Amino acid sequence: MKTLPLFITAILAVTLVGCGTTTASRTTTGAAAGAAAGAAIGSASANAGRGALIGAGVGALGAFAYDQHQKELQQQRDREAWEAQRNQQMYRQQSTNY
After folding, report:
1. What percent of the chain has pLDDT over 90?
2. What does residue 17 show for φ and ψ, rounded to 5 degrees?
3. Which of 34, 52, 54, 90 has the fewest CB atoms within 10 Å, i.e. is most exposed?
């Protein structure tokens, strides 16, 4: 009976980590979701406060790692777009030279 609320809390925590567009908003959301999940899990062991603190820390770290990963992916997409544009310009220049 207690596993359903824990499962729902965990799903919501994972879903909410992707919310936000800045590092601060993602980290804050992750900390809040982690605290909620930690409190829910901690209440099952009769220590919701400690669970909330641990969950907030883990949630913040996880959200920060997710944010950094998203930034790396965006930088890679930007580099690939820049290279494609540069290659297209070079192709056009070569085409006009012939």
Report:
1. 15
2. -60, -30
3. 90
Residue at 90: amino acid letter: M
The CA-to-CA distance between both ends of the chain, in Å, stands at 76
Average pLDDT over residues 8-32: 69
Domain layout of the chain by residue ranges: 3-97
Which pTM was predicted?
0.61
Contact 19, 37 (CB under 8 A): no
Q: How many CB atoms sit inside 10 A of residue 80's CB?
A: 10
Find where tokens 């580099």 sit: 79
CB 37 within 8 A of CB 52: no
Whether residue 37 contacts residue 9, with contact meaning beta carbons closer than 8 Å, is answered with yes
In Å, how far are 7, 34, 95 from 84, measured between CA atoms?
44, 40, 16
